[in-house]
Amino acid sequence: MSPTILLMFSGGLDSTGAFWKLIENQEKIHVHHMNLKNIENRYLAENIATKNIIEYMKNIADFSYSESTHEYESYNNKFIWDSDLSSFMAGNICSFIPSIKNIALGLTKSDLNGSVNDRIARGNKILEALCSATKIYPIKHLTKKEVWDFLPENLRKLSWSCRNPIYQENEIISCRKCKTCYEMDKVGITLQQIHLNQNHS
Fold it and tell me: How far is residue 148's CA from residue 54's CA, in Å, rounded to a whole number?
């Protein structure tokens, strides 16, 4: 199968929603996950969620998968935007797999507002320097709550969306303070705990 869509996948609710929507539409997909090692320290939680979701999806769909690791410092308490790195990696992957014409991202109606326009435009410039693929947003018409509601219960519970996870003993819990936790709490979504020795399901 030659993929025509690249899905940039984080293991979070939004990218899981985009993944499910593409599967529903029977698209030919290559999924890529980036392990982002920075001061947020969320890569371990996202990596566990991603592996569990990939195993779940393998039972119901045909797709290819890859991942990469990016470790970087903060400067004046700031660090590289995820969208910059995502656009850079997407552009390189598309240059290696010419059958890919579209890059799917898990942005929702809740995310597509004026505050992210600059980041989207900057990411687009990075992408355009590397390939001719076009970004698409499969769930841009849905809110986070609507994404939560349309996903199968077993699948949505595997996702991880907190940006500042708390690691204690053998489990990972959400911080309940970051922007994502706040947005999900506001619509009644309770983020799951992850056990560090959790088997992929």
Answer: 18
